[in-house]
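Onboarding guide, step 5: your first structure request.
Type a short instruction followed by the sequence, for example:

Predict the 3D structure of this protein.
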Amino acid sequence: MGKNIFGREDDIKAFLGPNAEFEGLLNFEGTVRIDGAFQGEIKTEDCLIIGETGRVNAEIEVGRLIVMGRLSGNVRAGEKVEIMPTGKVYGNLVTPVMVLQDGGILEGKVRMESGGEKTAPPKEPAKDKAAEPETAEAPPDTTAAR
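The system replies with C-alpha cells like these:
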C-alpha cells in the first residue's frame, strides 16, 4: 500500500458520492470520504475526509479529520483537524493539532488538548445579563483624523 495524497498509508474504505444523502450513525475503521450529504453522528478512531462537495451536519468523534467541504457540528479529534482552502467548519473543535490553510473558514471555538483526554467540546459561555454581548467584529477605528 502506498501513501495517499494526505500522506496516510490507508486507502479509502468507503465513499459517499456527490449525489448521495445519508442520515444516521456512522461507525467505521479506516478512511471514509464523504462527497455527498450526511446528517447525524460519526464515530471512528481513524480518518474522515469531507470532500469539496461534501455537506455534513453531525457531531463527530474522529482520529483525524480533513475538511474540504462544509461541516456544521462539534468535533473531537484524537490526532488532528485540517481545514483545507475550500473547507468551511461551523462548530467547536477539540483537538491536539489544528491546521487551517489559507482560504479555509472556521466559525467556532477551538480547544487544544492531547488526544487521550476525554472532555466535552467547548460550550458557549453562560450569558451574564450585565456583560456586554460578544462580537466577532473588529472594534471601530478611533485613529481617524479629527
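Each response can be followed by summary notes, for example: Residues 12-112 form one domain.
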